[in-house]
Write a sequence for this structure.
């Protein structure tokens, strides 16, 4: 079987775990099988490298941060290649550049412009296993770039799409659950889920897969599988597919819940109500690669309006600096309300099942939980609550919708 396998950082955070993965590959790989392995940095290596950069200097160019962070994945793949070769399985470690990932020059959150897997395919043709460093590429100017949070997922799915192979993503969890079992121990295992639901859950805070990777998988029809590292029984994992035949939309309108912390609601007041300033604001957000949610606009007079949206605290601070420095926003006041959590219910059954929003509001009201902004799509509804009410709200909603 030809397959791309991706291992997250906790799967490779010790030499013993790396050797165990190599041993598992040696025992399960059959002659003629094609296998590409993508690995993240070991454990908390990225956090450690970030702290080291902050200790080295306060003014950190994003180009240099990318050059530093990319070394984490390179360490993992080199060690895994060494472990495989020691077991008699020929393997070759590869950087993002060597595996053909060309990106734009937006450092720390680059986008893939082109993939050339010629070298990867040459290694496969030689009967060897390419061990690819996830999360990274190189710009057209030759600078090392990184793909942002969850970038190794993007690497793995992009290679699978280019080769026309399925992709297996391994972590320390057996599968995807309706909600994080650490918050709600009665959470149910999901044997399958649609691309649309997985994208929505990922976008709204679930950390099992990066949103862009699921989008790529849907676009190029890459079969995705989520499972536990070293577990050979695929029935224990979760498949992501186009049509989820196990979903009974009339009986189960909600498939899962995601919870996102560190939410800040930003409100820009005293904006000229001419459309141009608001457009300029969202152009700036796009240039900074900031994904916003819960957008609302309200007229505050004949000539002014206010705009509210949510993003992370860090993104908001960076945005405020840019607004303060841009003459186009002269006189605009920036307010923020932070220490919030966003709780989202997702399910394709919502498209044909009425009353979900009403039930959400009733549950929150019955439990005396104050909520702030609300946003909906055809398959999701999200509300923001104070962090102190996150657990109570999540459990109440899980019980109401039998998650």
């Amino acid at each position: 079987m030809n397959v791309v396998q991706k291992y997250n950082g906790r799967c490779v955070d010790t030499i013993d775990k790396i050797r165990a993965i190599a041993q598992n590959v040696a025992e399960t790989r059959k002659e003629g099988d094609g296998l590409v392995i993508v690995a993240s940095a070991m454990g908390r290596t990225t956090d450690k490298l970030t702290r080291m950069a902050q200790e080295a200097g306060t003014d950190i160019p994003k180009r240099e941060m990318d050059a530093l962070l990319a070394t984490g994945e390179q360490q993992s793949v080199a060690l895994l290649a060494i472990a495989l070769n020691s077991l008699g399985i020929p393997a070759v470690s590869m950087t993002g550049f060597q595996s053909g990932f060309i990106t734009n020059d937006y450092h720390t959150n680059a986008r893939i412009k082109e993939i050339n897997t010629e070298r990867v395919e040459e290694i496969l043709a030689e009967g060897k296993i390419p061990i690819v460093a996830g999360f990274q590429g190189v710009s057209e100017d030759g600078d090392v770039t990184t793909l942002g949070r969850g970038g190794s997922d993007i690497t793995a799915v992009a290679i699978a799409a280019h080769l026309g192979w399925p992709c297996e993503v391994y972590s320390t969890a057996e599968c995807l659950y309706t909600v994080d079992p650490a918050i709600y121990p009665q959470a149910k295992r999901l044997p399958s889920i649609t691309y649309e639901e997985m994208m929505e859950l990922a976008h709204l805070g679930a950390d099992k897969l990066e949103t862009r990777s699921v989008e790529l998988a849907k676009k190029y029809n890459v079969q995705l599988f989520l499972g536990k590292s070293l577990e050979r029984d695929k029935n224990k994992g979760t498949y992501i597919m186009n049509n989820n035949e196990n979903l009974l939309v009339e009986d189960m309108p909600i498939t899962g819940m995601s919870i996102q912390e560190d939410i800040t609601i930003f409100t820009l007041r005293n904006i000229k109500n001419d459309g141009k300033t608001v457009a300029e604001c969202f152009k700036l957000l796009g240039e900074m690669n900031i994904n916003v949610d819960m957008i609302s606009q309200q007229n505050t007079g004949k000539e002014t309006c206010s705009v509210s949206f949510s993003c992370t605290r860090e993104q908001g601070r960076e945005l405020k600096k840019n607004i303060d420095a841009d003459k186009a926003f002269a006189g605009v006041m920036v307010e923020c309300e932070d220490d919030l959590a966003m709780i989202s219910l997702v399910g394709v059954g919502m498209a044909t099942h009425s009353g979900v929003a009403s039930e959400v509001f009733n549950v929150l009201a019955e439990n005396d939980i104050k909520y702030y902004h609300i946003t909906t799509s055809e398959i999701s509804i999200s509300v923001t609550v104070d962090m102190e009410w996150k657990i109570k709200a999540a459990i109440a909603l899980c019980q109401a919708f039998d998650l």
User: Anything to note?
Assistant: The longest helix spans residues 62-86. Residues 246-250 have pLDDT under 50 and may be disordered. The two ends are 35 Å apart (CA to CA). The chain has eleven helices and 20 strands.
